[in-house]
Specification:
Blueprint: H1 7-21, E1 23-26, E2 29-35, E3 42-47, E4 58-63, E5 66-70, H2 73-86, E6 101-103, E7 106-110, E8 117-120, H3 122-131, H4 162-181, H5 187-196, H6 201-217, E9 221-225, E10 232-239, E11 248-255, E12 258-266, H7 274-299, E13 306-310, H8 313-319, H9 330-335, H10 337-344, E14 348-352, H11 369-379, E15 381-383, H12 384-406, H13 419-436, E16 450-453, E17 457-460, E18 467-468, E19 476-480
Parallel strand pairs: 10-13, 13-14
Antiparallel strand pairs: 1-2, 2-3, 3-4, 4-5, 6-7, 7-8, 8-9, 9-15, 10-11, 11-12, 16-17, 17-19, 18-19
Helix pairs in contact: 4-5, 4-6, 5-6, 7-8, 12-13
């Protein structure tokens, strides 16, 4: 089958036919699979003969020959063993505190309590940084300067050579993979790059390289999925004619307090006002939400109420059913008729969301550092490196407490045998304090050559003046930074 144009389709038909016939026993009961109608790649695990409306016992997500299983561990192991008797499969890779898994290019991990999921693409980011030879000192706290990111070329701007266009296409495709899966914070800039591919390739490449510097600074960021509510909210926002023509929409769907899917794209036609482009974005958000609801209804028959989160009062007024309308907005009432119908039938509710709490704002423009950090925190982004540091600090404190209990003859606060531990904790405390204040800069060289904390202190991996032995590992040195930048050679010295 390999090499034929119809191979993917033939494999899909064969795979689905086998899964439809699959049955397995677990805990004295027989189970089977049911293919989703809204999403054929999603399969539900049901007990044979169970009543209609019962939630599924597990889920299967398939993509070509990759399969992800979700559910109680014993049930999943029985199902995986049955699949292994049909096809030759790899060993079952189970997500745990100590073991991450990879699916469709995304790294999936969890916390110590296993009550949330982290999704990131750090290995992929490291690979594209290496491929484009980005210097470890090339760091940025913003995606790209706002004046640099436009959707149309400047007057008289160079189109670029064919080689530059190919390079821009390759770079844009690499970044698009990130924007669609785990990094919505770069979606707007990547969309602008797509508009400049064949119109201003040199600037498209420059934007992409600047974006790589931002990704190097934030490579440890991970999107958190955690169930905190039962709400299904569709946030929509729009940037009115950023390049003087069509407006730009941003949409994100949040279920149970976590972002599920998002979209950042130009609107299909020119809008005449901010209210109109916000209304168009909200209608698109409703369409996306209906698509998600169809999938959620198959997983859990209890359909949650849909809420539209809009930050424009004029758009909310137009979307709300009313008997009066100005001649200036009468044509928009026709466009909003579907929204009116859904509201009157109690299928959706409208909610005004202040701009500072609007999730979709992240998808509509490039931001300064402070606002960007606020929005990424709103989405649930966390820094996995900081999480690891906190774990190390807690572990050190636990080890020190255990050591103090074992040696009761020493003074409780004696520094004769554990001075290095206290200094290490102090260093970590400085790092975390600087990180919380927003002054944390990190130069993450492949093997942790140096880490910057604010503008005053650094920790270097080389043995220079003041050594702090750390459990037999490479000694560290705490030194005062004299200038704002210290040149480093290839060896990191």
């Amino acid at each position: 089958m390999y090499g034929l144009r119809q191979s993917p389709r033939l494999w899909q038909e064969y795979r689905d036919s086998e899964l439809k016939q699959l049955k397995f026993d677990h805990e004295g009961r027989t189970w089977s699979l049911y293919q989703g109608r809204a999403e054929p790649n999603l399969w539900m695990v049901y007990e044979v003969g169970c009543p209609d409306g019962q939630p599924s016992g597990g889920l299967i997500l398939v993509y070509v020959d990759d399969i992800m299983l979700a559910g109680p561990r014993a049930l999943i192991e029985s199902l995986a063993a049955t699949i292994g008797r049909i096809w030759k499969v790899s060993e079952l890779d189970v997500l745990s505190v100590d073991r991450d898994i990879r699916f469709l290019g995304c790294e999936i991990s969890t916390n110590d309590n296993m009550d949330c999921i982290y999704i990131h693409q750090r290995p992929y980011i490291n690979e594209i940084l290496r491929h484009h030879d980005i210097s470890p000192q090339s760091l940025s706290f913003i995606q790209a300067p706002r004046e640099m990111v436009t959707f149309e070329p400047y007057e008289g701007e160079d189109r670029g050579t064919d080689q530059q266009i190919k390079e821009a296409q390759r770079l844009c495709g690499e970044l698009l993979w990130l924007a669609q899966r785990s990094r919505p914070d770069v979606a707007y800039v990547v969309s602008a790059m797509g508009s400049l591919l064949s119109k201003a390739a040199p600037r498209c490449i420059a934007i992409g390289l600047r974006l790589l510097s931002y990704l190097q600074q934030t490579r440890d960021m991970a999107l958190t999925l955690r169930s905190v509510s039962e709400e299904l909210v569709a946030y929509s926002d729009s940037s009115f004619a950023p390049s003087g023509a069509r407006s730009f929409s941003g949409i994100v769907l949040s279920w149970r307090g976590s972002p599920i899917t998002w979209r950042a794209a130009k609107q299909p036609f020119v809008c005449l006002s901010t209210a109109e482009c916000e209304l168009v974005a909200s209608i698109e958000a409703l369409t996306m939400a209906r698509s998600l609801q169809a999938i959620l209804h198959q997983i859990d028959p209890a359909r949650p109420m849909l809420t539209l989160g809009i930050d424009n009062q004029a758009a909310i007024a137009i979307a709300s059913p009313s008997t009066t309308a100005s001649w200036r907005t009468r044509h928009l009432r026709v466009r909003a008729a579907y929204l009116h119908e859904q509201i009157e039938e109690k299928m959706i509710t409208l909610r005004y969301v202040p701009g500072k709490d609007q999730w979709a704002d992240l998808l509509t423009k490039s931001f300064p550092r402070q606002r960007l950090q606020e929005l990424t925190a709103l989405w649930g982004f966390v820094d996995l490196a900081k999480t690891s540091i906190m774990k190390a600090m807690l572990l050190c404190l636990m080890l020190q407490a255990a050591r103090a209990q074992e040696d009761e003859q020493e003074e409780p606060l004696a520094l004769t045998t554990s001075f290095e531990l206290y200094v290490m904790i102090a260093v970590f405390g400085i790092a975390m304090g600087a990180a919380d204040s927003g002054d944390f800069k990190k130069v993450f060289v492949e093997n942790y050559k140096c880490s910057w904390m604010g503008e005053k202190w650094m920790i270097v991996q080389y043995q220079l003046q003041f050594q702090i032995p750390m459990a037999g590992t490479i000694p560290y040195m705490l030194a005062r930074q004299v200038t704002t930048s210290i040149p480093m050679n290839d060896a990191g010295a």
